Amino acid sequence: MRVYVPLSLPRLAAAYKAGELGPAPLTAYAVTPALREWYVSDDIEELEYAALNRAALASLRMLAGEPDAARRRVVVAVDVPDGAAVADPDRGLDPGALGEVSVRDAVRLAKAAAVHVDADDAERDVAAAVAALGAADHGDDDAQFVVDGAEDHELLWFATQEIPNLIGSAG
Q1: Looking at the predicted structure, is the pLDDT value of residue 170 above 60?
Q2: Which DSSP string do the residues of the chain spell out, in sequence order?
Q3: How open is the CA angle 166-116-51, to the nearest 5 degrees?
Q4: Most buried among 48, 121, 122, 144, using CB within 10 Å?
Q5: 10 CB contacts (<8 Å, ≥6 apart)?
């Protein structure tokens, strides 16, 4: 099962140093039954893209708690054994938890398939989105527009061998 683990560049640096994504349990995003129902698609690539975007939003929320982190969303794509990632059935219909899964064990970073990170030119929009999150969560449509603006930036794909270069630019 492919899961998407939201991080920030400092958290990616810590994972690289430790050699694993952890500690467990990890919150990640995947193609869950609730996500399939919400997205109304049978195309696995579209569904995985939706799960990646859910993880990117979670990364944005992480950045809100890390004021010194570079304003770039980070998502690590990892394949875990079936059954290692479980959706909470009590949160299945919660729109905020669509695609959310809990990965029971730490995952070796060597198992990662790829790392997805914002380009440098997204930092201004991501910073604005982080600042607008609170108001957006309270129903402010203008703030939600700013948060949605971060999604206009596609996350770039990086091979795991490129992690040292990514975290070196975390400054």
Answers
A1: no
A2: -EEEEEE-HHHHHHHHHHTEE-SSSEEEE---HHHHHHHT---HHHHHHHHHHHHHHHHHHHHHT-TTS-S--EEEEEE--TTSEE--GGGTT-GGGTTEEEESS-EEGGGEEEEEE--GGGHHHHHHHHHHHHHHHTT-HHHHHHHHHHTTSPPEEE-GGGHHHHHHTT-
A3: 155
A4: 122
A5: 66, 68, 69, 170
**pLDDT at residue 12, as a whole number:** 96
Report the distance separating Cα 46 and Cα 9, nearest Å: 26
Give the pLDDT confidence score for residue 123 in this predicted structure: 95
- The structure's pTM equals 0.91
Q: Higher-confidence residue: 34 or 166?
A: 166
Distances (CA, A) of 103 to 22, 65, 96, 123: 9, 22, 18, 29
pLDDT value of position 171:
45
pLDDT confidence band for 117 (50 / 70 / 90): very high
C-alpha distance from residue 164 to each of 44, 56, 115 (Å): 30, 21, 12
Distance CA 168, CA 171 (A): 6
Distance CA 101, CA 79 (A): 13
